[in-house]
Structures are given as structure tokens and as C-alpha cells.
Amino acid sequence: MKPALFDFAVAQSLTDAQSALRGEQNKLVSGNQSLGPMLNLRLTRPAGLIDVSLLPELRVVEEHEDNIRFGAAITHAEVEDGAVPDPTGHWMRDAAANIAYRAVRNRGTIGGSLAHADPAADWVIVMTGLCATALVRGAETNAPLRTIPMEEFITGPYSTALGPEDILTAVEVPKPGVGARWAYWKYTRQVGEFAKASAAILVDPSKSRTRIAIGALGRQPALLLNPDAVLDGTQSPIEALSEAIPDQPATALHLHAVALTRAIEQIKVAKEFSA
Ligand SMILES: Cc1cc2nc3c(=O)[nH]c(=O)nc-3n(C[C@H](O)[C@H](O)[C@H](O)COP(=O)(O)OP(=O)(O)OC[C@H]3O[C@@H](n4cnc5c(N)ncnc54)[C@H](O)[C@@H]3O)c2cc1C
Question: How many structural domains is the chain composed of?
């Protein structure tokens, strides 16, 4: 199928993009790797597309003492290639390199992926696992940026805390402390496909932070309630999953238990982060 007719404009500034969203049936487009297929299938029929992929405000990368701020329009390929700093040493690069295939990574953006909030998407689970924060510009001119922890930003399948006139401007990724370790394992039937199950683990002793996020659940990522208990073996992966996701029977969580088990194996041998 082909998309229904739509207007197309390249935003010249963030304010420009904000006014184009105001009261209109317009949608932002960044890499068009998720929106494009939806337009083709006519699952969405915006009156116009506002291209924000080249906006300097969304392309900026800033290093702060505790985190790195990535503009929403930074592409997966730029992370993969090391064209932008990786606060985690290499974990973000590795995750980016395993998203789909290169043509998708050349165009697809971190912000587009998070705003689309596909439950199986890599940045959705990786950013949740890394305790990242979304920065959102509201509709009103000069409104202060809202900072939303990733576990609150992704509110469900294809659903986020973004209002119809909001723009995701950036994502902030905390710098892990010395000695931190990370693991990310995803199960895909074929290379380049979306995950069927995924698990991300962050162990950051200097910040007293242990987090295990489970993805590809058909909803927002789930955070395990007692991550240390799973890591020290006092709770089995399936017990931990059933505790965190009580609305799903254990039989439906089998692949996720496998993903979690593999991620636990990975973290046991993972290299420690050195700043
Ligand atoms: C064949 C194929 C395989 C794929 N496989 C994977 C995979 O294995 N793993 C994975 O994670 N992803 C995968 N993807 C998705 C890919 O990563 C997309 O790049 C990503 O999901 C969307 O990013 P985008 O920049 O293309 O967003 P777009 O398609 O341009 O936009 C997606 C949505 O986000 C909104 N949006 C975009 N930017 C903003 C913003 N700044 N503020 C607010 N809203 C915004 C748009 O309005 C739209 O609703 C795949 C895509 C394809 C086509």
C-alpha cells in the first residue's frame, strides 16, 4: 500500500516544529523508519509531516559531569560508529550495532525509537536499563524542559508520556561509576529482527545501583523488584519474572527467563567499567 496524501515540511527551528504541532493533525518525523511503514499501511494518516531530523537543537550532544545528553535526532549509526561519546565505554555502541541492519541504523534515531515506544525496541530496554532520562519540550513557548525517568516515559506499548504537542528533545544517560558492569541479551529469530525477549542488567556498586529491565513483553519494560536476589541466585529467573509481571503466566515468560539467564551469565564475565 501507499500512504494517504500528506504535506511535508522541514522544521527550521524547535519553535517552528512546536507551532506546526499546535492544533494541527501534523506529526513529527525523524528517521521515518517506524513512521514510514505505518504511513504505508495507513495505520496513521497525519495531515502533514514535520521533519525534525536536522534540527540543531535535536542533534546536539553535551557532556556533563554525571551524564551525557544525546539530542533526540542522533542516529543509531552515529552511536555505533563512535561519532558521539559513549558514557558507558562501549555498551551503547554494542547495543546500537545490533539494531536491525545498517540502512535502518543510518536513518533511525534514538528519539524516534523512544517516542515510538515499540515494546521490542532496543533503545526502549537499553535506556531503561541504563537509568536514562527523557527531556521533553512542552507546547508552550519557553516552557521549561520536563525531565522524565525512562521507566515513567514509556507508559505502555507504543505509548509514552509525550502529549500531542510535546517534542522529545534529548535523552540523558548517566555515566556509570568505576567498577560498573552491564549485560544485554536479546532473543531474535533472525539477525536484524525485533527482539522476542530481552534483558538488560546494570550493576553499579559505586552508586549502589542494581537494575534489571526486561523487554519485549508487549508492554513497557518491567523492572525486577529484587535484582540482587536474582544475581546472587536466591531467586530464580522465572520467580523474579513472575513477581515483577504478575499478570502474565509463567509459561508466557519462558523466553524472557532464557534472556535473563543469558544476561546473568554475561554479567558474571563482563568487563568492569573504568571511567
Ligand atoms: C526493517 C526494520 C527493522 C527494524 N528493527 C529494529 C530492531 O531490531 N530494533 C529496534 O530497536 N528498532 C528496529 N527498527 C526501528 C528503528 O530502530 C527506527 O529507527 C526507530 O524505531 C524509529 O526511529 P525513527 O527516527 O526512524 O523515528 P520515526 O519513524 O521518524 O518516528 C517514529 C515516531 O516517533 C515520533 N517522533 C520522532 N521524533 C520525535 C521527537 N523528537 N519527539 C517526539 N516524537 C518524535 C514520530 O512522530 C513517530 O510517531 C526497525 C525498523 C525497520 C524499518
Answer: 3
What is the best residue among 10, 116, 137 to mutate for testing ligand 1's pocket, by most ligand atoms within 8 Å of CB? 116
Residue 187 Cβ < 6 Å to ligand 1: no
User: Do 167 and 62 reside in the same domain of the chain?
Assistant: yes
How far is the centre of ligand 1, averaged over its atoms, from the C-alpha of 268 (Å)?
Answer: 32
Domain at 43, CATH number: 3.30.43
Predicted local distance difference test score (pLDDT) of residue 192 = 81
pLDDT means over runs of 10, the chain (275 residues): 92 93 92 96 95 97 97 98 96 96 97 98 98 93 88 98 96 96 95 93 96 97 98 97 95 96 96 84
Joined grid coordinates for residue 34: 517506524
| Cα 172 to Cα 67, 127, 131, 133, 175, distances in angstroms | 6, 9, 9, 5, 9
- Grid cell at residue 197: 525477549
Look at ligand 1, atom 36, and give the residue with the nearest C-alpha: 112
This model's pTM is above 0.85: yes
Task: Choose among 191, 185, 39, 180: nearest CA to 116.
Answer: 39
Residue nearest to atom 27 of ligand 1 (CA): 112
**Closest residue by CA, ligand 1 atom 31:** 112
| Domain finish residue from 17, 32, 51 | 51
Residue 1 belongs to some domain of the structure: no
Q: Is 160 in the pocket of ligand 1 (CB under 6 A)?
A: no
In terms of C-beta density within 10 A (0-12 exposed, 13-18 middle, 19 or more buried), how is residue 25 classed? exposed
The CB of 6 under 6 Å from ligand 1? The reply is: no
Cα–Cα distance, 195 to 16 (Å, whole number): 36
Among protein residues, the one whose CA lies closest to atom 4 of ligand 1? 100
Rounded to the nearest angstrom, the distance between the alpha carbon of 249 and the centre of ligand 1 is: 30
